[in-house]
Amino acid sequence: MTSPAQISQIPPRNPIVMIPARLASTRLPDKPLADIHGAPMIVHVWRRAVEAAVGPVVVACAEEAIAAAVTAAGGRAVLTDPAHASGSDRIFEALSVLDPEGRHDAVVNLQGDLPTLEPALIRAVLQPLAEGPADIATLVVEISEMEERRNPNVVKAAVAFPAGRSTARALYFSRCPVPWDPADAGGQAPAQPLYHHIGIYAYRRAALERFVALPPSPLEQRERLEQLRALEAGLRIDVARVDTLPLGVDTPADLERARALLAPV
Residue 224: how many CB atoms within 10 A of its CB? Predict the structure, then answer.
């Protein structure tokens, strides 16, 4: 019998991409259904995931209207409990319905507000699981703007990449500039890189099951960062460094930027 430690060393063989979506949004009401050149935003995200070609793509949604939009475009959607507190809970319910036998050994949790996402980033988030013993994988990009280093809305990953490698273990995530750099305190040009966390995750199936069963943790509640629950529970998170920061649509201005980026040539 394969032990949990041995399972964590096996590259995923049958991943699935799941996109949690709900209509409740304070800054951009009915966000998943926002029109972008004749198609709802959630459909654009679904298309990007299909283009990544890493496995089946399913939208785990809280409302029938989202499911109807996805199925009308030829996609697959699963209705889930509207009361779920997080996207992780939502995709776990949908996965349990779709795959009770556990055939899918890895799950990509893709946010439903990334309509301009490069499909290559979905493939990249699986790389740490293919290379080593991570339970969960995610993405980072180097911060290039000084104001982003200090912005609490930009989540940073404390990670050190070995020479010549683009994957490494994440030690912490914070809204503060971590690791510390004197440049951040003194206002001069930064001397050391900081990494902006991109909220796309890949879970080994067993890690997702364990994660959603855990109660909110003290550091998670203090920083308001769900991934700290995993670290506090001893789950390993590795990151892949990428060169592109995808546009997350949270406001009407973001939506206009997405429309401009996706405008037909």
Answer: 10
Split at pLDDT 50, 70, 90, the class of 265 is confident
Q: What three-state secondary structure class fits 66?
A: helix
Question: What type of residue sits at position 210?
Answer: R
* CATH, residue 216: 3.90.550.10
Can you point out the beta strands (E) in the chain?
Answer: 15-21, 35-36, 39-40, 57-61, 76-79, 106-109, 136-142, 156-158, 167-169, 172-174, 195-204, 237-242
Average pLDDT over residues 29-42: 96
- Of 30, 196, 37, 56, whose CA–CA distance to 115 is shortest? 37
Kindly list the distances between the CA atom of residue 86 and the CA atoms of 35, 78, 120, 155, 212, in Å, as whole numbers in the listed order: 24, 16, 25, 17, 9
Count Cα atoms within 13 angstroms, Cβ side, for 121: 26
Looking at the DSSP bridge assignments, the partners of residue 197 are 140
Could you read off the pLDDT of 192-211 as tens digits, one per residue?
Answer: 899 999 999 999 999 999 99
Residue 132 structure tokens = 């080593």
Distance of CA 187 to the CA centre of its chain: 31
Q: Which of 11, 23, 22, 6 is nearest to 238 (CA)?
A: 11
Q: pLDDT by residue (tens digit) across 133-154?
A: 999 999 999 999 888 998 999 9
Tokens of 120: 């290559």
Residue 18 β-bridge partners: 58, 109
Domain contains 262:
no
Say what the pTM is. Answer: 0.93
Q: What is the mean pLDDT of residues 31-52?
A: 98
Same domain, 125 and 239: yes
Residue that finishes a domain, picked among 93, 115, 137: 115
- Do the beta carbons of residue 17 and residue 52 sit within 8 Å? yes
Q: What are phi and psi of 37, to 5 degrees?
A: 55, 50
